[in-house]
Records
---
Amino acid sequence: MIKTLMPVGLAALVVAAAAAAFAKLPPPPPMTDAQKQAAEEKKEKDKAAAEKAKADLTAAEDAAVKNYQGNMKQEGKPIPKPVATADASQPPSGGKPKPQANTSKAGAQATPNAASGGTQK
């Protein structure tokens, strides 16, 4: 008796949890003028902080490059020239798209496997 009640109780619990998770919540109340102003100030502060972080990162990268180049000069090794890289946000340009492989021919030439009754090599 307990063996049959356990899965039924578990299923009922899962259904109840799903119903609670999908329950529609009421929309948030509209923002007041003070809240709107605070949100704008926060957005400006975040933007300024992002710009400062970007400037700090650039300065740190420049310092690292100068350190690397100084170490290379000290050791008497040639300094490698920077390699231009494409922007990740821009798709590559030029070239024609490659034709799609003919999958019907590839499937016909495939060797049969043990599951289909053939032998494997």
Note: Residues 86 and 111 are 42 Å apart (CA to CA).
---
Amino acid sequence: MLMFPLAPKFAKGKGMAFSLGLLYLLWLGPPTPLFGAAALELSSQDGSSLEDIVKPLSGPQRLELLLPPREHSPFQGLESLKRVTYRVRSGDTLTKLFAGFGLAPKERQSWLRSVQRHYSTKGLRTGKEIHFYFIRPDSSVGGQQGKERLRALEFEVDEDWTLTWEQGNRGIVFSKRERPYDIELRTAGGVVESSLFEDGLRLGLSASLVSQLADIFSWDIDFDKEVQKGDTFKLLYEERSRKGRGIQNSFRILAAELISAGQKYFAIYFEKEKGKGSYYDLHGRSLARAFLRFPLEFSSISSHFSHSRFHPILKVDRPHYGVDFVAKKGTPVRAVGDGRVLHVGWKKGGYGKLVEVQHDSVYTSRYAHLAGFARGITKGAAVKKGQIIGYVGSSGMSTGAHLHFELYKDQQYVDPLEFEIPPEDRIEPALQRLFENAKRLFLAELAATPHS
């Protein structure tokens, strides 16, 4: 990603709890507008401000809309439930643990078979927690207190996922659950002054958040040339965190407004399927493309595509069929699109360590002068758009750390900076009402966000 030449003064709003699950509730609600707002038919090129497009809500009405739906425990409703948390020690097996809790042999085998269908129990990972949920009947037939029975079992796979087995009417049921996040809704607004990236970090915005903003609008605006002093922006974003993860928070932009040279750009995050979202303009047209615009975050261009350029090492004029991005050694390099690795390793011709990706029958990309390759990047490996495939270096014929990036169409060089790809999709009519509700909700928050 290019280094932005101009930077903001930020005004960061207070965080508040928020969940995208709210949008599904809005979808089920009445079709009447949720906000005291215009119909949002304005184009991004007209002279109206965001405040003219949507009137922000305030007080209890706004807070009520932003409250997240209550999350229920996966085991809610079980009577006399007792949870026992056990931290795995060296040499532990699930069979030993079941026996230690007094499970009968038949019950023990039933649970063991169910778990082994989805999880290898040969070597439980030392230090990981296992949660046992027991239920005790009120009394036995003879009036005596019944014996505890194992009702559910939960394994921690990693920081993000847990595996759960629960005894039901039809036997033991398995499920994989994502561990819940603590989500804060935050806003930021600023007037551009000098370096968006550097001042953004200094004023508290994360590098990943600024990178997202650049990626979202990268096909609509050239941040390296077009963003000028006095331009403004606003962000509405989620900050996700989990207890015990320290500062490893994640961020996602939900809506953004950028005004550059009097022209307005808007982005609305929308999920057509749960967990699979993209960004759209106010009319529901996708801002995304099949390819990323740039293979790096926060970089400056040292050499453009040219049919004749003076080579700094060979000292002769020769074509430069690519773009050179200056970045520190070790900076992650991203695949610009989905595809399959054609070549990984040393490449003659001055390329040094190189990854070549075939995207389809038409497009191919090359990433040269790398310091090394990401894990799993081998010839024939499938890669996804945005996946890390290598790291910036200075291998081959290079005077310093940078990435040489090439793009081919039908085996012919094309200039990556002049390359245009049509939008991927737009909102289908069946999802239009849900998109409109999300748009109004997000734009109301942006409208209430000051620039300074």
Note: The domain at 300-414 is CATH 2.70.70.10 (Glucose Permease (Domain IIA)).
